[in-house]
């Protein structure tokens, strides 16, 4: 079965989505991610979508759901690398991803998480 | 029929080219309002290039179909002349006069050289007349096309000029908006800002609306969308320069700006932005 790789960096988890997401893959990612947060005692999750040109409402909801799940498991989620076109589309769709922190790139996302931790 | 007359016309053109050129130029120059040596020289050059080209094409193609591939060279020449005149500020009538002023001397020439066969004169004149009318119209068409492309380009440039995104500090961008915002402009504004955020890696953008006379629900909504889109990408927005009148309008319209940081002036917003990116601002001792 197809999986999206989850990398561990210290106590952070990095997920780089580089393939077009379909519903099954999104559900698998949610499963994998929640499992890994608990297993690795992660305190933060970075989801990098800089390679995505298209994000539909389903993926948008999946991301905010994942962020909510992570929060319950005591990990903060930062969404990084959203392209301008994607941002405009999501706003036009009325999805402002409330409760999800965002950063411009992975580097800034990491510093945001570290700043929050201290 | 036209097979024969194209040959005749070409022959006439070739044989009497020098005479025709002088009469034509004389007519054109006498009608010109702006007379100077440079313009005269240029017209002479254009005419000298145009006439043999027409004669050669007539001879080679043996048709009067101005739209056919055989006439591509002549069309090219005319297009160039049109564009040149457009740039120099001639009117479309002046541009077309280049062709139309040729008809009179040409017909006179035809009348003289073919005096012994009146039937041919009629045919040649009708067909050549149609051809030169077509050419004249073509120059006007080219003139208009050129003018339209200039207008289009200006429109685009105006749109881009009116929405500059400036970098005030490392990580701080400012977008001073001036003039009324409509949907098309807002779209450009939004795209420019987001693109610039990606390019510079800025984390704060100040949207200054001091120069925006009125804010209606649509504009307010667009602003909120821009702020939301920037936030999705990981950058914060501060809106500054809201006039008292506009503040009243916004509240009356029920637009919710509570999630957005707003400041009275660009200076205040800049100060907040500097603090957020970790810069320290102090006033140095003044020494006189």
Automatic annotation (TrEMBL), chain A:
According to the entry, every stretch annotated as the STAS domain falls at 2-113
Family annotation (Pfam families): STAS
Q: Which domain of life is it from?
A: Bacteria
Q: What is this protein called?
A: STAS domain-containing protein
Automatic annotation (TrEMBL), chain B:
Signal peptide range equals none
Q: Which domain of life is it from?
A: Bacteria
Task: Write the record's keywords in alphabetical order, separated by commas.
Answer: Phosphoprotein
The answer on whether this UniProt entry bears the keyword Phosphoprotein reads yes
Pfam families recorded: RsbRD_N, STAS
Q: Which residues form the STAS domain?
A: 162-273
Family matches, as InterPro entries: Bact_StressResp_Reg, RsbRD_N_dom, STAS_dom, STAS_dom_sf
According to UniProt, the name of this protein is: STAS domain-containing protein
The organism is Pseudoduganella lutea
């Amino acid at each position: 079965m197809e999986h999206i790789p989850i990398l561990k960096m210290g106590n952070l988890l990095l997920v780089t989505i580089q393939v077009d997401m379909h519903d099954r893959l999104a559900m698998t990612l949610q499963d994998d991610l929640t499992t890994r947060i608990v297993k690795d005692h992660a305190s933060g999750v970075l989801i990098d979508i800089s390679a995505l040109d298209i994000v539909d409402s389903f993926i948008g909801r999946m991301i905010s759901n994942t962020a909510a799940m992570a929060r319950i498991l005591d990990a903060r989620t930062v969404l990084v690398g959203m392209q301008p076109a994607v941002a405009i589309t999501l706003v036009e769709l009325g999805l402002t991803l409330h409760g999800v922190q965002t950063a411009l790139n992975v580097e800034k996302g990491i510093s945001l998480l570290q700043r929050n931790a201290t | 029929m036209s097979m024969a007359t194209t040959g005749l016309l070409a022959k006439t053109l070739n044989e009497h080219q020098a005479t025709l050129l002088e009469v034509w130029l004389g007519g054109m120059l006498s009608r010109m309002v702006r007379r100077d040596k440079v313009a005269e020289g240029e017209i002479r050059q254009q005419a000298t290039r145009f006439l043999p080209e027409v004669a050669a094409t007539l001879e080679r193609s043996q048709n009067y179909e101005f739209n056919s591939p055989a006439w591509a060279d002549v069309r090219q020449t005319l297009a160039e002349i049109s564009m040149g005149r457009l740039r120099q500020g001639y009117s479309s009538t002046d541009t077309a006069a280049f062709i139309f002023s040729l008809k009179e001397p040409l017909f006179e020439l035809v009348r003289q050289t073919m005096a012994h066969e009146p039937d041919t004169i009629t045919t040649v004149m009708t067909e050549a007349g149609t051809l030169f009318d077509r050419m004249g119209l073509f120059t006007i068409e080219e003139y208009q096309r050129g003018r339209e492309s200039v207008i289009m380009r200006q429109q685009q440039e105006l749109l881009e000029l009116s929405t500059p995104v400036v970098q005030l500090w490392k990580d701080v961008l400012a977008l001073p908006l001036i003039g009324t915002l409509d949907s098309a402009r807002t779209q450009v504004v939004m795209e420019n800002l987001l693109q610039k955020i990606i390019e510079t890696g800025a984390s704060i953008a100040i949207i200054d609306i001091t120069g925006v006379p009125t804010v209606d629900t649509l504009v307010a909504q667009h602003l909120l969308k821009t702020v939301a889109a920037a936030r999705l990408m990981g950058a914060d927005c501060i809106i500054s320069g809201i006039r008292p009148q506009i503040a009243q309008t916004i509240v009356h319209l029920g637009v919710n700006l509570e999630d957005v940081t707003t400041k009275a002036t660009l200076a205040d917003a800049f100060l907040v932005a500097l603090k957020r990116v970790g810069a320290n601002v102090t006033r140095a001792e003044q020494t006189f």
